[in-house]
Amino acid sequence: MLRQSVLTLLALLALAALLAALAWREPARMASSEAALAAASLENGASLYRSHCAGCHGVAGRGIPGLAPALNHPDSFQRRLDEVGYPGAPRSYIEAAIAAGRPVNQGQYSALMPAWSEAYGGALRPDEIQDLASFILHWEAALAAAPAASAAAPPAAIQRGKAVYYGPAGCLGCHGEPGSGGVSGPDMAGIARRAAQQAPGLTAEQAIRQSLLAPGASIAAGCRSAVCPDLMPRDYGARLSQADLDALIAYLLTLEEGGPATPAAAAVAAATPASTLRPPGGDRELGERLYEQECAPCHGPRGEGAWAGSLAPVFESVDPWQYVRAAVEQGVPGTAMPAWGQRYGGRLDDRQLDAIAAAIAGWPAEQTRGQAAAAASSPAPTPARAGLLWLALLLAGPVLLAVSRRVRTR
Amino acid sequence: MHHRPEPATHRRIGPALAAGWDRLITRLCAGLTPADLRDLARGDPPRQPNPRLRVHDESFWLHIRPVYYHEAATRFSHTFRLGLLSTYLFAVEIITGLLLMIFYAPTPQRAYGDVLQLASRVPFGQLLRDLHRLAAEAMIIAVVLHMLRTFLTGSYKPPRQFTWVSGVVLLLLTLLLSFSGYLLPYDQLAYWAVTIGSSMADKIPPAALGHAVKLLLLGAPSVGPATLLRFYLLHVLLLPLLLLLVFFVHYYKVVHVGISLPASEEDVGQDTARRVPAARRRYYLPELATGEAALLAAATAALLALILLNIYPGAPLEHHANPLKTPTHTEAPWYFLWVQGLLKLGDATLMGVLLPLALVLALLLLPYLDRNPSRRAADRRGAIYIAMILSAALVTLTWMGSAQYGVRLAPAEQVAQLTLPEEGAGLVGALSWQDLPPGDWDTRTYAVSSAPPALRQTLGQIQQALVQEHARAQAAGEPGLPGGYAKLAIEQWQPGLRKVTLRVFWQDQAGVWQTFERVSFVAEAAAGGS
Question: Which of A210, A280, B29, B163 is buried most, with the most CB atoms less than 10 Å from its CB?
Fold first, then answer.
C-alpha cells in the first residue's frame, strides 16, 4: 500500500513537471505559430490575388495601362495615402479599397474597382480581404528592402516620361523644348525647384502632380493670366495612365535650369518617343506567326500551357488585349517570362506587340480552357459486390442467433 | 519578584499552530485526522471506530462511492476501469471546453479566426484545443470499449438491464456531442462533414418529417450562421446537460445494483454482487482511491504525451468554410465513417437512416431480447458470434467509408492531389524552402536533375505516382496517362514567397498532348522543415 501511495505521488509530480516544461516552451510555440499564421495568410493572399486581381492589376501587380493601376509600386502605399488624405494605416486603406471598391477614378481606367466584400455583394470574406492585404503589403516590404532601386526613378521611367512629354500628352506644344523659354506656357526647365515653392506643404513631386491633374489648384506666382492665358488641359488624369503620369513627373523633375543636365536626363536625351495607352488592334496574322515562333514553345501551340502557364487567365481579364499587351511588353518579374517590348530591353516593336495581343485576345476563350474538361473526374465504380457480401453477413447475425437458440433449447 | 504559575490557556505558538493545522486537515478530509491519513497512506488498519466509514457519509464526493467493493469485481482485467475512464474524459472535456468558450464566438465571421488565434495568441490555446479533441475521440473509444466489455461479460442481464439502456443512451449522447462540436471551427472539414451528416436527417421517412428535422437542426436549408449557433448551443448546453443527467442515472444504477462479478464467481442466474463476504471486501479507502488516482494521473500524462510527442497530430484545421467550394474528398468523422460506408452500398434512406436506427434499437432492446440467463461465454456462443460479426462489419464499413475506398479521381488529378493537395502538406509541402529552388523541374529526368536531392526524390515520387495511376486506369479499362510525365515550375513570386505549378502531361487516344495544372503558393515561413 505504501508503495502504491508513493508511486501515485510520483506520477502526480511527474505530471506537474510535464506541465511546467510545457509552460516554459509555450511563448516560443506561440511565436512560431504566429509566424506560420502570417505565412499561411500570405499564401492564401497570393492565391486570391491570382484568381481575383491579376486580371486587371497584372500578374505581378504592376498594373495594366487603361485597366487598373499598379499595386506593386512605391506610390501604392504611403504616398497614395497622402494623396487622398487617408488618415489610417496602409493596411486599412487597402482593405477598405478591396472591400468597398473605388467608386470613382479620374477617367484613366476603363472600369471601376468593384466592391469585393461579401457585405457589399462581392465574393470575399473579411478574412480573405485581410489575406489579400497581407500579400499586397508584402510588396511594400520588398520595395522598402530595395530602396536604391525605388528612390530615384529608373532611367527607363525618365525615358518613358520624356516620350510622354514629346508625344501623346502634347506638352511640347505649349511648353516647348525645356530651356527654350516656353511657347504659350512656362518653360519647364527648373520646374523642380519652382514647384517645390509653389504650394506650402507640397513637395515638388506632389506640386507637379497637382498641376497636371488639377491645374487650377494653384497657379505659379509669376504666371499672370494676361500674359499666359490658362490653356492647361484639364483631362490629363483621364488621358494618361498612372505609369505614364509617374514617368512624366519623374522626367520633369530631372529638368534643370538651362536644359537637361542630370546624367539620367542626358542618358535619355536621345531616346525614341514611345506610345502610351494604345487602342486595341493589330495584325492578327502577323501575331499568330509571332506567337508560333516566340510563345508556343513555352505556352503551348494554343496557349493551353506547356512548361509555362496556360493563357486562360487572359480571358478572365476585363480587357484581354491590354492584359496581353502589357504582360508581353513588360514581362512578368520573378518568372521566366521576359519583357519583350523594346522599351523594356526586348526585341519586339509596338507593331509586333499589338499583333500578338490582337492574335491572342482574338482566340475563343474555350480553347485555352479545354484542359479543365479533360481533367474532370470519372465516376467511381460502386462497390456493389463487396457491399452485398457484407449485407448478407449482417443479415446472417439474427439467423445465427435463432439457430443457436434452437440448439440450446433442444 | 515572585513566581506566578502560567495560566492554562497560555501556550507556546508552535504547538498551537500545529493543533490548528490538524483541525483544518480533519475538517477538510471529512473527519480523517492527519494520523488517520498517515495510516491510510501506509496501509495500516484503521482505528476503531473506523473513521474511514464516516467519510463516506460526511463527504459529498465520497458518499457517491461505495465503502467497499467485491474483490472479484475490482480486478483490472474484469472492467479495465473503462467506465471511470469515460467519466474522467468527460470531465476533461468540460474543463477544456469551458476554457475554450472564453475565446470563441459562434458566428461565421469570428469562429474560424478565433480558432486560429487560439493557436497563436492564447497561452496554451493550442494545447487546450488538442486536448479537447483528443479527449473527445478517446471518450468515444472508451465508451464503445466499455459497452463491448459489458456485453462480453454479460453484465447487461438482469438485474442490470436498465443500466445497459442508460449506457446506450450515453453512447448516443457522446457521439452527438462529438458531432455537434465538429462544426465549431467552421473550416472546410467541419462544414462539409456536417453538410453530409445533416443531409442524413433529410432522408428520414416520410419526406415531410425528414425535411422538418433537417430544417430544425440546421435552422436553414443549408449549413450557415443559424446552424453554427444551434450546434454550439447543442454542444455546450443541451447535450452536456442531458449527458450529465443520464450519467447520474447510469451511475446510480451501477452503485445500487453493484458491479457484476465475473461469471465464474457465481452460479447461473445468481447475482451476489451486493452480498460481499467480509473476507472479500476491498475498501475504497485507501486502496481503490489511490489506484484510481494513479490511473487518472497516468491517463492525463498519456493524453499530454500523445500531444507533446506529436503522436496525436493535433486537432485539424483546414481552410475557412467555403459553401461554394466542395472539397475533393469529404469524409465524415471517423466514428461515423461506417454510416458513410453504408451509404456507398445503396439507398440513403435504408442504409443511412433505417439500418443505423435498427442497430441502435437492437442495442437498446438487447437485454430484453436476450433471454439466455447465463453470463458464461460458453453458454453465449451465438451472442458472441453476432457481436464479433457486427464489430467486423463496422470496421469494414468504416474502411469502406473512407476516401481511399470507392471514390477515385481522374489519374492526373489524383497525382495533383498527392503533390499539391487542397488541404494539408502533400509532397511539395514537405520540402524545405532550400529544396524548392526556382526552376522548371521535369519528372522524367529526376535521376539526373540538378535539383537538390530532396526535390529530386519528390520528382521521382511524382513520376512513380503517374506510372501507378496509369497502370490502375489501364487495369480498369480506361485510357490512363500514356506517355505521362509532369513538371514542377517553381517561381520566385515575392521575397519569401514562391509559386509552385504542377503540370501533368499525357497523350490522349488521338495522340494530342493534354495537360492538367494545379497552382499553389509556398511561403518561406510555412515551408516544411523550416
Answer: B163
Given the DSSP bridges, would you call strands A255-256 and B497-507 parallel, antiparallel or unpaired? unpaired
Work out the angle at residue A79's Cα, subtended by the Cα atoms of residues A78 and A84, and round it to the nearest 5 degrees: 100
Return the number of CB contacts < 8 Å for A and B.
Answer: 211
Alpha-carbon distance of A371 to B514, in angstroms, equals 7
Handedness of CA A349, A352, A357, A358 (dihedral sign): positive
| Burial of A219 (C-beta count, 10 Å sphere; 0-12/13-18/19+) | middle
| Amino acid A278: pLDDT | 64
Strands lying side by side in the sheet with B439-442 = B439-442, B485-494, B497-507, B513-523
What is the secondary structure of B34-92 as a DSSP string?
HHHHHHHHHTPPPPSS-HHHHHHHH-HHHHTS-SEEEGGGG-HHHHTTHHHHHHHHHHH
Q: Is A10 part of the contact surface with chain B (CB cutoff 8 Å)? A: no
Decide if the complex's ipTM is over 0.90.
Answer: no
With a pLDDT cut of 90, the percent of chain B lying above it is: 62
pLDDT, one tens digit per residue, over B92-123 is 999 999 999 999 999 999 999 999 999 899 99
Short-list B105, B134, B107, CA closest to B118:
B105
The DSSP element (H or E) to which A255 belongs, if any, is strand A255-256
Contact A68, A136 (CB under 8 A): no
Tell me the β-bridge partners of B69.
B282
Beta strands in B396-495 (DSSP E): 439-442, 485-494
Q: What is the pLDDT of residues A336-352, one digit of tens each?
A: 677 788 777 778 888 88
User: Mean of the pLDDT values across residues B126-136?
Assistant: 96
Cβ of A12 under 8 Å from any chain B Cβ? yes
Q: Which of A118, A401, A403, A406 to mutate to test the interface with B (most CBs of B within 10 A)?
A: A401
C-alpha R_g of chain B: 31
Residue B369: closest C-alpha in chain A:
A401
Residues whose CB falls within 8 Å of the CB of residue A99, separated by 6 or more in sequence, listed in order: A115, A116, A117, A119, A120, A122, A124, A126, A129
Sort A168 into a burial class: Cβ within 10 Å, 0-12 / 13-18 / 19+: middle
According to the model, what pLDDT value does residue A65 have?
78
**Cα-based angle A277, A280, A281 (whole degrees, multiple of 5):** 130
Strands (E), B118-187: none
Range 41-80 of A in CB contact (< 8 A) with B: 42-44, 46-47, 50
Reported confidence tier of residue B3, pLDDT bands at 50, 70, 90: low
Average pLDDT over residues A248-252: 87
Q: Which of B70, B19, B493, B440 is nearest to B265 (CA)?
A: B70
The residue written with cell numbers 439467423 in the block is A399
> Quick one: closest CA in B to A44, which residue?
B521
0.90 cut: is pTM over it? no
In the DSSP assignment, the letter for residue B351 is I
* Secondary structure class of B504 (helix, strand, coil): strand
How far is the C-alpha of A74 from the C-alpha of B3, rounded, in Å?
Answer: 97
Which member of A33, A127, A139 has the closest CB to residue B320? A127
Pairing status of strand B439-442 against strand B485-494: antiparallel
Q: What chain B residue is nearest to A6 in terms of C-alpha separation?
A: B41
A121 grid coordinates: 455583394
- Chain A: give the shortest CA distance to residue B7, in Å: 43
Q: What are phi and psi of B47, to 5 degrees?
A: -75, 170
Q: What single-letter amino acid sits at B394?
A: L
Please compute the mean of the pLDDT values over residues B277-296 and round it to a whole number: 90
Q: Write the DSSP string, A83-146.
A: HHT--S-HHHHHHHHHHH-B----S-SSSPBPP-BGGGT-SB-HHHHHHHHHHHHHHHHHHHH-
